[in-house]
Amino acid sequence: MLDTTIQSAAEAAYSSNAEQSSAPPTNHSQTHIANTTPVFDVELIRKLNQLGPRYTSYPTADRFTDSFHIPDYESTVSELKAQTQHLPLSLYIHIPFCASICYYCACNKVITKDRSKAVTYLDYLKREIALQSKLFDGMKKVEQLHFGGGSPTYIDDAQMSDLLANLREHFEFAPDEIGEYSIEVDPRTVSPERIAVLRQQGFNRLSLGIQDFNDVVQKAVNRIQPEEDTLAVMKAARDVGFRSISVDLIYGLPKQTIASMTQTLDQIIGADPDRIAIYNYAHMPHLFKPQRRINVDELPDPEAKLQMLFLCIQKLTNAGYVYIGMDHFAKPSDDLCLAQQEGRLQRNFQGYSTHAQTEMLSCGVSAISAVGACYTQNEKTLDAYYARLDQGELPIARGIKLSNDDVLRRDVIGQLMCHFELDYAKLNAAYGIAFVDYFKNELAKFAPFEENGLLTLSKDALKVSLKGRLLIRNICMVFDAYLGKKEEPLRYSKTI
């Protein structure tokens, strides 16, 4: 059961603020959805919380190596093209520029007000797109496109139109009613008029970074973003026909409190987005230099962060959102929720995705592709990225070729992250194995998990309980063959 101190503090804040809120929680549920709300066992979380991967890939990106070269990637693509059935593509385009720095940011970005740098970058980006297009000749059907960054809306309307036209020259895009075409926007720098242009340009899904609506918290992380600006962008997106609006929040930021987080959640619920991602702020200044500007004395302590996590889950599920997994929530009618119900949800470098059967091709500085049985990552600096393209070659800096064991474990971890269960018979048929024999050692490690009520094991399946869902990363780590082989550096966040 939830620790009474944490429970009473969170529920008191919830009750007090709910009485003052002018926008009561909305019940989005239209049809019966099986209960997916995780059970919050604070003592168990305290006991099992540890450093671990987020599993946006397996093997994780820190396992990529510079011994992986362009011919390795080209051979993988050739193998895919030789298959009788070509899978559709998911394209990711990385625009790294931002006009100002947010102190919490862990993205690969370039902070500059010199807009001419974007002109140079777009020229090189189009060179990479041409090289990838040539390589993928014969399998260029795209069902999913995502522009991320940085701030993709750093480039202006004309530059965006030109880039999209270039992509359409090189790839074949599914019609609007089938394709999922999303872009991350910064509400501080886009107007309702710009939102209308983005829809005309072909985007049909919008993702907004909010993080926190509280003025004090915004100042502490150097991201001043008035609520009215954000709401105006969201209204404009609905008015011009965007199919889905997603917002990002972060808990654990400096100067956040239960009261301020409660107010932000009420504001978010009132804004009624289709998807909500609530990330745990991981303070890792040894890896991310902007975080060195954050005053560690202003960060909430671990107990306060647990209160915030409980509050987020409680308020959003009470408001009708479905807990998808990790840190994602969605309306029951949203494609993300439907994809999970239909077994086609997947997890990739953008988080949870609705298009399971796609190859993920990524272009831009630092971008990571997942094609066939390999991962590749581009050069991380602009100079290195440009230099490789000046040589007329793909800017791949590192990657990894997956073994048969890697592919199997990737599927196992993906099934757990997305659907919280494993059907041994399906895995046996797909990989020609006897699951209980192949993973004999791993299954033996689950005894304490089962004793703590995190999962159940049978001769046919592994099923994660509602109590175990918050600790899904811990469960997946048991299947990670790379962990524990050597001392791990401090590169992971806490699992909760």
UniProtKB/TrEMBL annotation:
Domain Radical SAM core span(s) in chain numbering: 83-318
Region feature Disordered, mapped onto this chain: 13-32
Binding residues annotated for S-adenosyl-L-methionine 2, in chain numbering: 104-106, 184, 211, 223, 248, 282
SUPFAM superfamilies: Radical SAM enzymes
Keyword Iron listed: yes
Pathway(s) the chain acts in: Porphyrin-containing compound metabolism; protoporphyrin-IX biosynthesis; protoporphyrinogen-IX from coproporphyrinogen-III (AdoMet route): step 1/1
Listed Low complexity bias regions: 13-23
Stated family: Belongs to the anaerobic coproporphyrinogen-III oxidase family.
Assembly with partners or alone: Monomer.
Protein name, entry field: Coproporphyrinogen-III oxidase
